[in-house]
């Protein structure tokens, strides 16, 4: 099984610990993982802001960078959703505009192999207890694209429940959007902040020490709000919890 | 009845002179009372809808059927509309075709004038709001009285509707009592002097106030939820009985209906009469379903006019991605579940169609040229809750992004953003340059501020700290710790 890591641009530039944790976790489970250096970004910011044509070079880049791998493991639900749901649309529109099938082929060839981290663990490797140890109280926010586009469902929660020492507390209104939404956060800052304020209030009310998620872009928004509010609550990516063991604490 | 001057509408149901969504939302998100009213109302109906839908094991199949019936009908819309016209005419009705709001208003005004009446009673109708019919009638000296309870509250309060199903959702009962107490006397029977804010008291005051209008009215104006092509039958579903009064008592009935409301057959109603009430009011069945076919001697209105309204619908139909918005049955489930609607409120959308469906409908009916219309496709975090609850499976996020493309392409205000996006794509298509930028950011990280006063970072850092850059990007960690057999470039 040839497995590549798609770190995503946000993790590469801002949250390397999440990508490092993903590598360590996969290696601990016996998976040899590669990081093709030609990878950059899935193009979601451009696409969701209305710049579809500017996304096309990145679709091609992704397809080239990850050619030949059986799985492309990605610690970000929204980036996987971008590839799975929107790459075929980008291909279809290019074809409708008379620009051939190349993008459709690139999308069709890549999309089925790109998997979100918790999908890969639970569905492909078939593991739920991965020997992690994390002695903290944690609440989990399921980001919208993981929840509604990918249908991750119980996968992240099952993984967290199997972590030794971890106390999982339920987040009220968990299915509600945190208000990040990519460029939404800067184009509609007031509504975004109002949504974020409700999300962090719900998280704080659980008494958890950590607000866990599987999408660092959402967590970047929530962490920025928590720090602005001088809250003791911190955010953590699920990969960093799952990579922690009694021998080796979170990266 | 006089209504506020700001109610002039453009062709897509967007009000003139409204600010773009972000500016309007800047005010409304800080209105504590509005936020509390909306939160209570949307969360209540949201939970009830979920329960009502969960009762039906075949909901996903019903939803798929609703979607397919609408798509099939829209594909052959010309055929079904002609069949409808033929059947309505054969049953004694008269069919009028209106290309836009102005034409529809002219037709209705002249029909009312021909009756000699100077007032009409109205059944709640989005189509007549979209064209600004009440204002057009008022300009012609004809008073239009809304008879739906929430529409009455909006009209008496000289207010604007903020929700498709519950247009006064932004008001609580203390505010409603105040509106009834101070305004009812101006338009007819006053509210009782000992009016309390109990729902039963408020409903009774409205009932008594409206009864006088029902019994006097010679003309009624309605919309319709469905039009059955095979028999020319009109269908109105409602909860209060005011619709039944308006549709049966007056001598003349005028219905203004969007052309997308046609369904081929009565069998199709079976699907929609399950989908609609559970999605909108969370009821298994709505209390009143009124159906009529043309006119009948000695029973109901003597004259029936159907005004078929285009007003941007055929243009919407021409768009392969955007046309799915025409499947909408105006249930409001997407509004009730939307986190943006809940916090910004319906008025922030600047027109008669608020919420997620408004954000894809208004810019299509009116085009994305206006300030409000151009801002609406961006009034969403693309969380997808709307698509999940939509009873006819309109992929609202897909259409939003599709419309963002049109705005980004055609709106000169997006020039700087386009340049920025172009730069970002170049960088992201050159991993070496990207790595250099990441390294530079990492090296200077101690100097980065927590807030920035300019550009997109300003909107970000007004309420959030900027993230810290790490000591080194992931790709450098990888290089130091692994060798990559397949890495290119």
Automatic annotation (TrEMBL), chain A:
GO cellular component assignments: cytosol
Pfam families on file: CCG
Domain Cysteine-rich positions: 3-83, 138-223
Cross-referenced InterPro entries: Cys_rich_dom
Single annotated GO MF: oxidoreductase activity
Protein name per the record: (Fe-S)-binding protein
Organism: Actinospica durhamensis
Phylogenetic placement of the source organism: Bacteria, Bacillati, Actinomycetota, Actinomycetes, Catenulisporales
TrEMBL record, chain B:
InterPro entries referenced in this protein's UniProt entry, alphabetically: 4Fe4S_Fe-S-bd, 4Fe4S_Fe_S_CS, FTHF_cligase-like_sf, Helical_ferredxn, LUD_dom, LutB/LldF, LutB_C, NagB/RpiA_transferase-like
Residues covered by the Lactate utilization protein B C-terminal domain: 412-480
Domain 4Fe-4S ferredoxin-type: residue ranges: 325-394
Gene3D superfamilies reported in the protein's UniProt record: Alpha-helical ferredoxin (1.10.1060.10), NagB/RpiA/CoA transferase-like (3.40.50.10420)
Source organism superkingdom: Bacteria
Keywords from the UniProt entry: 4Fe-4S, Electron transport, Iron, Iron-sulfur, Metal-binding, Repeat, Transport
Database matches in Pfam families: Fer4_8, LUD_dom, LutB_C
GO MF term list: 4 iron, 4 sulfur cluster binding; metal ion binding
Protein name: Lactate utilization protein
